[in-house]
Amino acid sequence: MTALPLDPARIRAQFPAFAEPSLQGQAFFENAGGSYTSQAVLTKLDHYYRATKVQPYGVYPASQNAGAAMDLSYQRLAQALNVTADWIHFGPSSSANTYVLGSAFAGWLKPGDAIIVTNQDHEANTGAWRKLAKVGVEIREWQVDPQTGRLSLSALDALLDRKVKLIAAPHCSNVAAEINPIAEIAARARSVGAVTAIDGVSYAPHGLPDLAELGADIYFFSAYKVYGPHQGIMAIRPELALALPNQGHYFNDTKLRYRLTPAGPDHAQIAACSGIVDYLEAVATIAGDNVEGADPFRRAHAAMRAQEVALATPLLDYLRQKNAIRIIGPDDPASRAPTIALGLAEPGAAVAARLARHGVMAAGGHFYAYRLLEALGIAPDHGVLRLSFVHYTSPEEIQQLIAALDAELK
Predict the structure, then answer these.
(1) ∠ Cα 235 238 243 (to 5°)
(2) For range 355-373, the mean pLDDT
(3) Greatest CA span in the chain, whole angstroms?
């Protein structure tokens, strides 16, 4: 394995789960379903519940401190994403957030307008948009290559014209995992006057992107997959957020933060989300001079990706040698997230159950990418085995996984 830019011991010290007695010897390979929570987040969550669990934004000190802690998360997440704080919105989950957006777009789009969705997405970023057919919106499907699961820009170009008002696509699929060229997709959308809604749920755990560089109008991800609490986070271009019909209480119509949040998200969890950004700064500090970047967040991103590529290389080298295994998506670790789905002769969930005997925590199924599995010729009920990890995974855990696969995939 090539040199690691991040010291695994120092990284893992940031996560109480690695000191939890019940988890000793258990190698966690279901990170795409939710990551471990960093100590920085847990400390803020605990403090909020102990000291400021009151209605925020009031006139007394505890209430004012509660509101300030929430405001800090808006400011810090915006800083990490390289946007202003008025881009940031919280909701209970990414799926709930996209259904609210779908409702808003239903009142914004006109009959005869077209939108482009993919069959590579998690259902959250395709199902909500497809429902707009009921209000007369034309739905165009950007289809994956049935062998590779790839979305090609040439296939997108064939769907584009001035009728298109929205392109919804994933930064990377939670099954195929190839990193899609979002800046190019956003540029194509702008060229026809369309906006972009990018599902970053499967990419953000591997480094929060620079949204100014990507050019997307909407970018959403799940805090609980990015070392934080169970919240959905949306970054939305403020001009677009104000143009969409209000989805909240009528008297909050002019309050940007409330317009796309019909119900109040968990205050304590919002406050705890600034801990995600604190953790990313800690990653940049641990990386030191091993990586370059314009700020701590770009350095953290670069270090996390370099760490994951190094960790994925021996695993993909091993999997390539197995003729009975179909690697979904590219086998080049630099072009994909370390969410590695395998098509096998037996159901993925059955293999995951056997891996558990070896202390490997993995999962099998369709992972809400039902349309993608169908496009790839895999029955969703049969599913895939998914092995997902992040930068805090250790080289020893990769070897533990390889040994378990060798024992169970004869």
Answers:
(1) 120
(2) 98
(3) 66
Residue 178: strand, helix, or coil: strand
Beta strands in 66-113 (DSSP E): 88-91
The DSSP annotation for 271-304 comes to: HHTHHHHHHHHHHHHHHGGGS--SSHHHHHHHHH
> What token pair was written down for 253?
């119509």
Helices (H), 107-192: 127-130, 153-157, 182-191
**Distance separating alpha carbons of residues 337 and 206, to the nearest angstrom:** 7
Single-letter code of the amino acid located at 127: G
- The encoded tokens of residue 43 equal 């400390």
- Kindly give, in sequence order, each residue whose CB lies less than 8 Å from that of residue 309, ignoring residues fewer than 6 positions away: 333, 334
Q: What is the dihedral of CA 237, 239, 240, 242, to 10 degrees?
A: 120
Global pTM value = 0.97
CA gap 158, 160 in Å, rounded? 6
User: Rounded mean pLDDT of 326-349?
Assistant: 98
pLDDT tens, residue by residue, 255-283: 999 999 887 789 999 999 999 999 999 99
